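From the shared-data thread, chain only:
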Amino acid sequence: MLNPFKLFLWLYFGIYAAYAMDFETFYQQVHIQSLEKNYIRFRGRKLLSYESYHLISDAKEKEKLYDSLVLVFTKISRFIIFNEQSGVGISTELGSHLQFDIKYYETLENIGIRGEIKAMCVLPYFDKCILLGYQAF
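Structure, as tokens:
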């Protein structure tokens, strides 16, 4: 018979390990399901990968995805905008233009040009982006 403490540890770490997933693995799963049109839902919105979104050629199908969320894992190529009202705009190596709240300015500046970012944005304008893996203040 197992010691109750050992049983607790085994269950805790066994369950934790089964559900632990890094960003890259998560992105790949979102991408696969996006290609299959079996979208993962996050807070009631469809979640898809950047690549799968740009593979959609039908305008009506893209229109159905308005207000959905898109994951963008890329590198910063340049800063476009910085102002108090609209926040921080950046261009990425993928050719996207992402819009972040002003609270991300210093973090994005520290990441710098050619720095890697992981973001989640609202479609179709890639606005209202949040940085993944960084604390927001």
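Helices lie at 4-19, 23-35, 50-55, 59-64, 105-111.
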